Amino acid sequence: MADKKFIKAQWRFIICSMIAYMFFYVTRKNLSMAQPEMLAQGVITKEALGVILTVHGVLYGVSRFVNGFWADRLNGRIFMTLGLALSAVMNLLFGCTSLTVLFAAFWILNGWTQGMGFPPCAKMLTHWIHPKELATKMSVWNTSHSFGSALALGLCSMLFAFGMGWRWCFYVPAVLAALAAVFCFFCVKDGPQEDGLPELDLSDVRGTAAGTAARKVTDADRRRLVFRNRVIWLCAFANFFVYVVRFGFLDWGPTFLKEHKGIEVSKGGLMIIAFELAAVVGTVFAGWFTDRVFKGRGIRTCVFCMLFAGLCALGFWYLPDGAPMWQATLLLMGTGFFIYGPQALVGIVAAQQATNDAAAMANGFMGIMGYAATTVSGIGIALISTHFGWNAALLSIGAFALAGMALFMCAWSAKADGYR
Question: Which is nearest to 287 in space by CA: 269, 273, 312, 305?
């Protein structure tokens, strides 16, 4: 069992890396708040914005995949700091321009630099946290996604309340991200040794400590751990469906609540905030449940989470017109609670199965599969709802959730980790 000094340093790393990672979201989710004013002022067209958002999302997924290779080989603290600093620069340049071609260039490049955030975190977390408690503590870390989104929303809302224009939604996050990069460089430690502590003892899952220390991990080892691992492939394809459900509700929630249930946009926005708050609770609960009930086997938790997320999505289809708003809110919160469990656990499973030798590469692979889902959650949901109605769209989201559950079930018998 780790001593008190190590545990204190471990939690210091978790909190500091959470704070730093939050600002990747602040410099990514700010565009969604700025775009209504940009469209109203004729700064950019809706079609151009749609193309920029699509390419940004796809390139972000590719970036996570490619940068996963590099993050396993390089110092995670420096790699993450560089990504955050470059995101700050891209935001500053985006706010300074008025040309569509430059908007596209800077935001698409921002998609690439954003992909330098999570892979090094995935690597560093596996060097700080033992596999037996990784699900619980990494789930706590994963709440940084929701807190970062909420911070971007609140910050930009406050800037507009003070009469600031849309450009300030990029200037202020750029400055804050630059400060966060400095914070990351000095406060986030790549591993226990960088903090003057011994490396994490994995002899109970990997064999003797001497044997672990003597191992030299090659690129071929990393490729084997990731691309010849049946469990990682199953989880990667399941992650596609996780993200379809997640983005389906995040991107289209206010729209379908207004068009399908007649709920005002202002109230629909509050319901999406409730979705995010439920997601925070669901993320932490899923990690705790995985370690306490399934002894680190996160795939089994994902099976049940996807089942109940699908049922909540189908609940919207079943909900009669004119039903009280609290019923729709509960269903939306239920979806957030259950879908964010797999969203967090897929990364944890990837890190456990690939071990800390290839955790970043495995999470990069998960990322590219997850963000490929934007091709379905974006244009796919739009086409279904336009031609067949929102009932068909909700049925489709429910079906995607059950498809993800089926893929997770195929890996039900997987061991808790790949160290053995």
Answer: 305
- Are 330 and 182 part of one and the same domain? no
Return the exposure string of 63-96: e unless at least 16 CB atoms fall within 10 Å of the residue's CB, then b: bbbbbbbebbebebbebbbbbbbbbbbbbbbbbe
Q: How confident is the model at residue 94 (pLDDT cuts 50, 70, 90)?
A: very high
- 56 and 109 share a domain? yes
The Cα–Cα gap between 149 and 26 comes to 6
Which of the listed residues 189, 216, 239 is the one where a domain comes to its end?
189
In a 3-state reduction of DSSP, which class is residue 139?
helix
Helix (H) / strand (E) element for 60: namely helix 46-71
Is 218 part of any domain? Answer: no
Tokens coding 350: 């990837």
**pTM of structure:** 0.78
Nearest residue to 45 via CA among 87, 101, 91, 94 = 101
Side chain identity at residue 43, one-letter code: V
Residue 206's pLDDT band (boundaries 50, 70, 90)? low
Report pLDDT digits (tens) over 358-371.
Answer: 888 888 889 888 88
- Domain range for 342 is 224-410
